[in-house]
Amino acid sequence: MFRPIDLESKKTIDRYLKQADKQCCDYAFANIYAWAAFYKTVWCEVDGFLIFRFYVAGSRKWAYLEPLGTGDVSKAIDFIQNDSANETHQPIRFFSLSQKFVEQVKNFPALKNQRFYKNRSFGNYIYSKEKLAKLAGRKLHGKRNHIAQFEKRYPDFAWKVIDPQTDIPAIQELLQMWIASQGKATTTILQEKAMIEKSLNAYKALGMFGILLTVDGKNIAFAYGSLVNANTFCLHAEKADTRYEGAYTKINQLLAQNLPAEIQYINREEDMGLESLRKAKLSYYPDILTEEYFSYDMRSPEAQIWKLWQTCFPEDDDEFMPNFIYPYSEDSSRITLYQNDRLVSMLHLIEGESSWGKIGYIYGLATDPEFRNQGYGYKTLKKAMDQAYAQGEIALWAIQENRDYRIWQTKLDFSDPETEPLVFDVEDGFDFGENPETDVGICRIIDVQAYFALYAKEHPEIREEVSVEDKLLQGNCGTYAIQNGSVVKLSRENPGKSIKSAEILKNYPISGGKLLKIAVVSRQR
After folding, report:
1. pLDDT tens, 440-474?
2. Which of 95, 99, 113, 467 could form a disulfide with 498 if both were Cys (CB 3.0 to 4.6 A apart)?
């Protein structure tokens, strides 16, 4: 029953969008169409309602937007309940809901187990067109000054309304220049590139409007978007050559100054919880910051993770949790222990890469306060070690925030805290640490032979036999011959004097290993 998002579906979908009169960018057809490949967005009509289903944040977790239509919305909710139970086999998740809709449906029997919450990260920044066009008032003096400096520095600037017949190649060239300026074409950047290219290929059909800015005849910036409702314009893309100081500020103003007269508001979308983006959007003082509601099924595994996490780490609010839960919390990464169907201890084993090879990072070790000092933390960590060994990870890293919890060292053979901090390379910007100056790691060698192979390669002059005793990972036990830049495991026995796993890092140190590259995801809508 669900259909893909294509240009042929625009007429039908637009009918529902126009009737709904939303201001949220998630309900602009051009946005839905441009991102459809990434989110695997599909749609259908059910008893007079339009229903969208899509993947969350680049994951494989399905969610639904607010059903749009008139009549008995309970039929649409019943359809979603049936679809989640029998088609996706996943719990119901809702995204970008209005408060009015939440109040209408929260007591429906089909949604009795849904927890609804607001997420500030996805509030849409909406400005009056007049404000962005004139930049009047004391608060926006800095913006006016920025534009004055741009106009003084580049007196030969010019602009034009984008003509899809002639200007698309220039925009594509600017896009390639912008990507090159980022230094690294991350997955997130390539996803945005694909979105922009798809928009440009259907620019006229999507009803786009945009501005192209030039200096001395050279294209330096573009911005375009589409209507989200009759009086609100949604900005979909804005890129500039930052070598031209003030280009972003100028293209922003030019777009506002040249929008059709009927437009009253400009939606510059959300900040996704990114501090730099939030600061930039707030600097224009939005007239409206929409409140977007979300929900999840309180019976689901992710809900149990959510609850225990906030019990143990109350500083992590509902704005933080989705940024971790949806991209990173999977069945494969969760290490959990239950007592009578109650989640009592957990951690996440996040897989990544380092100069040593495949590594694991332990994140969010938590035990329910009622079950502490009963060995659950140790058992959870031991499960993580066993899984890391089975997955072929060379080592496990963790940040030991509670230095009094010595079980890491006394029972699990982790090292004492390193002197240098761990560094995380995460494309979506998620912060797996807290303070880069104090995020020193503790390490546990998981694959001794693989580690010794790295040591041998780094120290080809070494000729030595090492006997290792590892009571927790028996496969590591044995004698290793290190010579001529390689290593050979001689036996599984431990003749004579042996060293423990925790002593390997101290006695046979190798360089690197502390830059952790975490699997790529995206926090795009």
Report:
1. 999 999 999 999 999 999 999 999 999 999 999 99
2. 467
